[in-house]
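Entry:
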Amino acid sequence: MAGIKTTRRERIKKGIRKHLAGSTERPRLSVFRSNKGIYAQVIDDTTGKTLASASSLSKDFVAAGNKVEQSKAVGKLVAEKAVAAGISKVVFDRNGYLYHGRVKSLAEGAREGGLDF
């Protein structure tokens, strides 16, 4: 059974996704946060394909610093991959999480990496 926090986040997530969808010209930058790591995907919702992704637990990521610093590095990494794929504008999907801490740090890193949202 899902916990109270998970149920609350799922409800908030549905409300966000009502107003937010990734298109071919502006894909969706989706964030997932776990206790151990943070994950980011650039998704084209019209085709249902992931165009770029990065994670703090992936093999090409070198972990350094605390979780907030790692989140910023993941944001920069996903931005580099997206720019290499020809994507410069995205819509940010915080996925039900508060725009604070690790989620905010990932967004700032993605902006520094060259994404516009």
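The longest strand covers residues 38-44.
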